[in-house]
Structure formats: structure tokens, C-alpha cells
Amino acid sequence: MEVQVNGEDISPEEFLEGAGPKTQANRANALSNNQTGAHSRTSEGADGNRQRSRQQQRNVRQQVIRNSKMPLLPRSDFKIVVRPRGGLDVATTGTMRLASAIYRTANVPAYEAGEDTVCSNNHQNIIVVSTPHATHAAKYRQLQAITVGDRCHEVSAYETAPDYTVKGIIKGIPLEEDAKSTHTNIVHARNPQALAAKRLSNTTTVIVAFEGPRVPTYVRYGGALLRCVLYRKQIDMCHCCGRLGHRMDVCPNPQDKVCRGCDAPNPGPDHQCSPRCKLCGGTHMTADRNCCARYKTPYVVTKRQWERRRAAEEAEAAATTGPAGKPRSRSRTRSQAAPGPGAAPRAPSSIRNAGPAVALPEGPQRGTPRPLNR
């Protein structure tokens, strides 16, 4: 179908001559906009990936800390931690079988064991025994092995610090000092807050339990004055199987290993990878010595932070409200409103704020309206 319109015929050269520069400019602008949009989308995608990676690392850390927590036990009880050796898996063995083995090995009768509590932490692969009796606690501390089924497993047991204590560490204690000498040189009258002392593995660092919520700045070790700092517990990392949550001495699966850097199963001796920490995302092995996220925040620090935050919130709330707890307002209340045309004028502020009311003499006073004579 052909359509005729009124107009003037022009050549294709004349048509392209007027439209060319504009078309090229439009194409250049469109290309620039596309490149800018692609760059912004790329930057937004990179930022989103970094944020998701940091969130995943925080989730892993929080999950490990959450799984490591024990149930609430009586505060006044003695708590004994039993650490199994030899590949004993607490989760597959079961708490009932472990409790029976502990009671039987410690020679605690069944009618007396009813007041004791045995609970297991499957994530840390440890057992905790809570008892109100000092005699039972002494028996549990002496455990060196338990028999589960037909197999004997080596264990190590120790008593934890009470709930009303806080831990500090001192460094530089020679390895020649045994446990008795270390305890004697720290727990004495010149350190009134010190309750117990224990060496940290085979190092020169000693953990000291103090009574109260604060750690002293210095501790006297015999005649020496040593610097003491707050103890910060580390997130457990197994250097045997490469997994988070438990330590190497209680590893339940020493044959099933993963790479601490890339999670490769059963890596060989010539395995090489680009490590990535699960806790902080750094380019190092998970929970490495240089990792800043491998320490847990002590409870006393969390409590102080909460108290400061609560005090700041209360101060802010008090600043925005009046003395009686009501919001401040710039508008006058009914008692502060201007007097009406027939009302008596208000007394000066010096009289209103002078203190208790004082009786004025009878009769008309200066500044008060006189009665009209009829």
C-alpha cells in the first residue's frame, strides 16, 4: 500500500547530513551510560560479596561459640571437666553410658549419684560433672581412665573455677616450677584475691583465678612482681583433624582430616592451597596465631559494656524527660499561663521560690486590688 504526503523531496545525503552527528552523539552517550551502569553494578556486586563473606564469617564464629556453651548448672556446685582421649566420641557414645562409666570408676554409689549431674558437650567433645559434695568432686578429679563397653579410654579431669571468679594470666614462669610450687608462690597473703593457679599446658604462662569481677594489674610470684592481664579464651581449633570446636587432645576422628585453609579432605604432605580463614576471612590458616577473631570476649567485658550502654541510655532518657519522668514541653501549662483580665497578678519569683509559705498581715497590701466603694 502506498501513501502520499505533502512535502519536498530530499536526497539520502541530505537526510544523513543532518541526522548523522546527532545519531553518533546519542550512540556515544548510550555507550557511556552502559559502561557506567556496568561499572556501578560491578562495584555493587563486589561490595555485596564482601558483605556476605563477612556475614558468613561472623555466623561461623557465633555458631562455634553458641555450640560451645554448656547448660545452666547450680552455681554453688563443684564443676569437674572430664576430657576423653584415644578417639572417644562423646556424641556417639551417649551421655547415659558415659555417666554410668564415670560413677562406676569413681566408686560413687547409685543412691548418692542422684544429686550429681553429668552432661556432655558434643561440639567440644568433653564431659562436665556437677556435684554439691566435696567428697564426690575429689573422686571425680582423680579420674584417669573410664571403661565404656569393653574398651578403656584415658581421660584427664580438673575442676573449673567458681562462677564468682575471674581469670588472669601471668607469663615468664619457668618450666622447672612444678604445680605445687606455682600454687604456693601465688596463693598467699600478699595476693589476697588469688584463689588458685594452674600452668597453661607446657608453656611459661600461668592462669590465676581471682575472687571478684576484676583482675589486679600486678601479682606477686614469691618475691617478684609480675604483670597480670585478663585471660581471653580462644576458640577451640583441632590441629589434628583441622576442624573448629574442639582441641587436638580430645579429637574424636583423628583419621578423618581436612585442610585448615581450604577444607580439602585428607590432604597429602605435598598439598598446597590459598588459605582462607573461616573466622576472619584473612589469607591464613583458620584460627592461626595471627588471627584476630580467634579470641572470645570475656563475660566480665561483655557485662561492663552492657552496663555502660544501659547507663548511657538512661542518661539520654533523663535528658529528654523532666524531673518527674514527663517529656519536656515549651508550651505553658495551665498553672504557668498568663493571668486573665480579672485575676490577681502573680507574685514575684523571689517570693514564689523563697521556701515555705509565710503568713502576710491582714488588710490591703501593695500590689493587690482594693475593694470598690459602693
From TrEMBL:
This is CCHC-type domain-containing protein. Residues 1-68, 311-374 are annotated as: Disordered. Residues 23-40 have a biased composition (Polar residues). Transmembrane segments: none annotated. It comes from the Eukaryota. Residues 41-50 have a biased composition (Basic and acidic residues). Residues 54-68, 337-348 have a biased composition (Low complexity). The lineage of its organism: Eukaryota, Metazoa, Ecdysozoa, Arthropoda, Chelicerata.
